[in-house]
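Workshop exercise sheet. Pairs work together: one partner reads the sequence aloud, the other fills in the structure field after running the prediction. Swap roles for the next sheet.
Pair: D.N. / O.F.
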Amino acid sequence: MGSVKLQARILAVFLLLLGGGSIAYQVLVQKVPLAQDEKDPVWVVDAQVSFTARANKPIKVRMFVPPQGAGYTTLNESFISNNYGVNVNVEKGNRQVTWSARRAEGNQYLYYRLMLTPRFAETRENEPGPQFRPAPVLDGAEKLAAEALLQPIRQHSADVETFIGETIKRVNELENDNVQLLLGGDVSPENRAQVVDLLLAMSHIPAQPVHTLRLVESQEQQPELWLRTYNGKRWLYFNPLDGQQGLPDDRLVWWSGSESLLNIEGGRSANMTLSVHRNEMSALQLARSLRLQDASSFIDFSLYELPLPSQQLFRILMMIPVGVLLVLLIRSLVGMETLGTFTPVLIALAFRETQVIWGVLLFTFITAIGLSVRSYLEHLKLQLLARLSIVLTFVVILMAVISLLGYKLGMSSGLSVALFPMVILTMVIERVSIVWEERGGSQSLKVALGTLVAAVLCHLLMVWQPLVYFVFTFPGVLLCLAAVMVLMGHYRGYRLTELMRFRAMVER
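Structure field:
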């Protein structure tokens, strides 16, 4: 007996670990939302390009656009124009869109919109970058100024990270004569980044300017310049103005390199505005959107991949073990008597159509009439099969009459009584009558009342939307329920009703 209990406990632990592990995998790896109403930010980036077309000149507008998968999941990308051809290609690691037209007149407007979210974004391995570059040739005062700045930088740095940080710090000391010489009077962020890049090149350290966009609510924004370098394992990002290391989470890398964001041929008076807006969307809706785009999401490996009618069916079926576990706990821990384990659950399923109040009334009425009919049939000494057949027939007649009366009275709830499982009602009537004969009328009423109470509790639990979503989305929870059922199978302790029943013995 001891080995059997041990095997049952091992099985329960195995089921619990398997079910809990699948839930943890969905939450931590697949980023499945725990709640149906959980929302995620959706950033909408709008770019508007305006210019005046030159007469009788072909027009070609090139603009860098963000790379896909750079820490964010792209939901939608739109290129909006009037009578322009659109082509997107990759040049030197950057994505670039080209709008082209043979002729255009007057003011022209081009639009670009990008919708992205941080959820479901795959973390990509860092692509390797260069770790060495030749030093540029400098002469005269510029060479002396660069070497004068590099000498203390080498003394106060231990590796590539600290070297770059110290270089940025030195270049931003604008009162330094050597810095002023290299800047040439231009203290703009772009020029300071070029001087930092020059000093790094003198030490054979490759660096690359990257232009980022800050994902905050803003009507007009300009890309922010950063520097990055590859240390042999990963890319390191630095702010050329204050030496801050590490790209903040709210930054989107737009393009890299020293080229300008926008390049127009055949036009003049070009202007570009960038704006960022923040929206919110249900995490589940995001996953469905990605599924429509054939993108990777947890829906590809879940019940959400089924057709909608099948999903609705399984939302009901997946809740049956939850109701069964509740009945098991009610019978084993509370001690409430019911007509079996599955009968309350099946009645609870019927309550989905009739609602609880109408369901209880109809269940009580039909059961009472059925018991009366069954009692009379028992008086006629009919056999079991004939008795059940007649009771079933009267149950169907009662359903038809109640539905017709409900329709005439304008009560839609009366129509749904036909959805009651008539076989279940027939068996309930038969079993209640048997209990009545074997254990008395009070005991049969007690069992019927216990069945009805258990059915109501199961119905309320099985239609609770947060739980329905959780069980349907995380099927591994059924394994955890099975583990609890295995453990309950060896429970031999007191029930709450027994404690009340034997309270007099304790008081003595």
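Discussion prompt: The chain has three domains: 31-131+209-296, 132-205, 320-462. What would you look at next?
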